[in-house]
Amino acid sequence: GTDVHPGAWPGIVSIQVTRKNGTWHMCAGALIHPKWVLTVARCFIGARNVIKWDVVIGATNLSQLGPEAVVHQIKRILIHQHYKAGSERNNIALLELDQPVECSDYIQLGCVPKASLRVSELKTCYIAGWGPSVESALRPRLVLQEAKVRLIDVQLCNSSRWYAGAVHPHDLCAGYPRGGIDTCQGDSGGPLVCKDNRADYFWLVGMTSWGKGCAGAKRPGIFTSTQQFHDWILLQTG
């Protein structure tokens, strides 16, 4: 991935936990409403010993937050009622913030596609996150990284030499067939965005769910498809 300039990903958030030994970036997410962040459920496995959760919005460098960044506390965590850890089925969660966020050049809302958008036809897609760049360094990076990816047909992704049926119908597959660019473990919940084919804006089409290792051939990243949960999101956020 390459370093992201401030303001280039105005919808991404860093979800951070405070434990006895300090505050750590755990997952990424996306702001979709002034009071709601969309992320993945797997972030909250083992959440019992967390003193508090915070959400950092409008930041790219986590080691030095600029004046444009804001920190909010989480009022409520809503995990999908049919989430299955391990298989990562229905891997989606919503975080209600303590206060509404004010939008700015550095803080914008992500757009979740309705059922009518043909996501599979979108050509220009990117992923972002603070994940490590190689498996040996599983500490999150402090500067947001981005990479261009291609959507890969889920049937191909599910074929015997790829993921052999482990990808769910509510997932998307993105990366490159020969590997090399992908998301890593530190990026859970990181957004997958694709540019609209007719207009100059991006859709929030997925969130990093899982993958086998990092950037291997026939092992692209698997993303929860936000479009498939559009109605669930509306229902929860009222």
Characteristics of this structure?
5% helix; disulfide bond; mainly beta; Acrosin; Trypsin_dom; 238 residues; Thrombin, subunit H; 6-stranded antiparallel barrel; 2 helices; hydrolase; serine protease; 6-stranded antiparallel beta barrel
Dominant shape: globular
Termini distance?
36 Å
Average pLDDT figure:
86
Strand order of the largest sheet: 8-9-10-13-12-11
Task: State the CATH class of the largest domain.
Answer: Mainly Beta
CATH topology of the largest domain: Thrombin, subunit H
Instruction: State the helix count.
Output: 2
- Work out the number of β strands: 13
Based on helices, strands and strand pairing, what is the structural class?
Answer: mainly beta
The helix content is: under 10%
User: Which CATH architecture of the largest domain would you pick?
Assistant: Beta Barrel
User: How much strand content do the residues show?
Assistant: 35-45%
Order of helices and strands: EEEEEEEEEHEEEEH
Question: What layout of secondary structure does this protein have?
Answer:
Layout (H helix, E strand, L loop, with lengths): L1 E2 L8 E8 L2 E12 L2 E4 L12 E6 L12 E10 L13 E5 L27 E5 L15 E8 L1 H4 L13 E5 L15 E5 L6 E9 L10 E5 L4 H8 L1
Summarize the structure.
This protein folds into 2 domains: 9-109, Trypsin-like serine proteases (Thrombin, subunit H, Beta Barrel); 119-227, Thrombin, subunit H (Beta Barrel), CATH 2.40.10.10. The chain is 5% helix and 35% strand. The protein has helices at 154-157, 230-237, and strands spanning 2-3, 12-19, 22-33, 36-39, 52-57, 70-79, 93-97, 125-129, 145-152, 171-175, 191-195, 202-210, 221-225.
